[in-house]
């Protein structure tokens, strides 16, 4: 595979975008990314999206977006992998360029979740679970995560308030990100009094569903035009999977998909954990942060919450996470989230993160996008230097 | 890109499969393909499917199928490109293997369209059109194709009965294919008396929606196990696109996506039209056969129907099509159709087509899978020899 670089990024603010449809939202992000890359010649478009069919009665989305973005005629496909659809589309774009099939591709993630009733959104999101054996029983994703969180607290002796640091750091970081949905601070006291959704998960444990689109331009080394931005190199993008249904797993507190996907990515990049200085993880719920950190190998089992309380994951800590607010406070437009994570990491490498979010000296960053409760996991490693 | 071969194929009969769900249907095809390839070590699964969300409230389908197929943990994504989802998944599988990212992949197409009411199916299929500007007006795919057929008849002076040969040959060929949905002959008289659906499209002009799954195993040259079957080589798999909405096209009778995709595929394979001896095209409606043949360059504009009446496309003709019954008589389980086409072409190369369908001396075959009314087109060229 030939080396592949990201040469342009674009994003819309994460909001309730009542004034634009799926296609316009995607086009805004694509155009921003193309401008950022100094208008390269794009040969293929990979669209990450989960729910355009169920929420907007629109399949065949990729071609529609290509046309409206002014890219009529190019190769275009939609990639679906539940909440990991964005990073999965990025993976396909990387394969297309790395293989030599195309020189330049765009990966865009787009989702509109606020267009219909919250019941429709909940039903849509539940389609990431096993429709016959989980969703049919009436279980929602917050309920599945509540089971995990309750078990985790029981197993390792934590109190609910111990999870506060995950939420606090996300909201603190989001305040400086103009594209984030939330711009308010969360105090420990506020977290503890937050309205219960599915015990022990409260409102402030949950990432908000919202609308958004983010895009990246990917180019092969030898054809990279001298764009205005420093290229950021793709050192790995690997997928690991697990059972969809939680009850099929031997240990529900161990996300095998995270373990496999992280290991494959580190192997592909020839790195170990110590080289990763930024981890944009999939903090859809506080418990997902803890399980991700542990299954990815950044914390011993049962220790992630303790490390969070020690401040390890804050901007000034050893392994910053959610530096632009994460899913928790930037917002979680599901099929777009994986691309938002990559865009945010790219901005860090290019010294374009808003102050005071800018990290210094990051050589490698990992982004991790998860579908379902750890059923599919896409782990990407980006680097400052060419692989 | 390294050479890639198909080493195993599998398919379920196209039927109304009331007794099995999406996952079981897909698994049947995957297991058949794996057995055919002598159980290779599979590293990635690409699922072509259009309507699992709208029809079965099941997204995140790829991981579910991987798990149920006994492939838990491997990379798995769903690829959606309306009725071309199957071949689009094949394209991604080819890129994954050709790039060197994985050694062996499975592409499976699966669709269940008969599980709910015909209204739900019609609504689902309409999501391949522009939801805001076409489907919202109440237009269905048969109506869109009726507009095209009427225009074509007007432009080139054909009568409706002139289209009979496309239907007759599909039904004639399907009789020998045990996996086809229909096993009855259609006489010219019968075609002319067929019930009108959307004038001038009658019931016998329309491919039947149904349930089905088909799968192929793809391997890189250097890792190909000495399986029992002769490998069939992928010489090209290219995507071309056009506007979704018909009214955005300069000439609705010219399918630009077909033209571009065919040209790209022939260029990639370094072939001209004369070398293609089998064309499995997307005969969703009789008019689509005519437009495909012309836009692909196998007939002058307005001449495809005349050539059909001359018998060119029959088994004994110069360019056989729909040799296993085509979409028309094998049936059209939308997201699976593109893989069925490839499976049928592979069987031809391996002398495994049922008699009297077996062609002799085919060196190259083209399969063409279309999404929408020509909006996205995946053209594959398979060959007997290594590229």
Descriptive notes:
2 copies of one chain form a homodimer. In chain A, 35% of the residues lie in helices and 19% in strands. The longest helix of chain A is centred in the middle third of the chain and has 16 residues, at 141-156. The first copy, chain A, has 13 helices and 11 strands. The first copy, chain A, is an alpha/beta fold. The model of chain A has no long low-confidence stretch (mean pLDDT 96). The first copy, chain A, has 2 domains: 4-117 and 209-232, 3-Layer(aba) Sandwich (Peroxisomal Thiolase, Chain A, domain 1); 139-206 and 235-383, Thiolase/Chalcone synthase (Peroxisomal Thiolase, Chain A, domain 1, 3-Layer(aba) Sandwich), CATH 3.40.47. The termini of chain A are close together. Strand 3 (75-80) of chain A pairs antiparallel with strand 3 (75-80) of chain B.
List keywords for this structure.
homodimer, 387 residues, alpha/beta, Peroxisomal Thiolase, Chain A, domain 1, 2 domains, 9-stranded mixed beta sheet, two-stranded antiparallel sheet, 11 strands, 35% helix
Distance between the termini of chain A: 11 Å
Average pLDDT, all residues of chain A: 96
Radius of gyration of chain A: 19 Å
Largest pleated sheet of chain A: 9 strands, mixed
What is the C-level CATH assignment of the largest domain in chain A?
A: Alpha Beta
Quick gist of this model?
2 copies of one chain form a homodimer. The first copy, chain A, has helices at 22-36, 52-56, 61-68, 85-98, 118-126, 141-156, 164-174, 188-192, 256-269, 286-295, 304-309, 326-330, 334-349; strands at 4-11, 44-48, 75-80, 104-111, 196-198, 201-202, 212-220, 232-241, 276-280, 364-371, 376-383. Chain A is of the alpha/beta class.
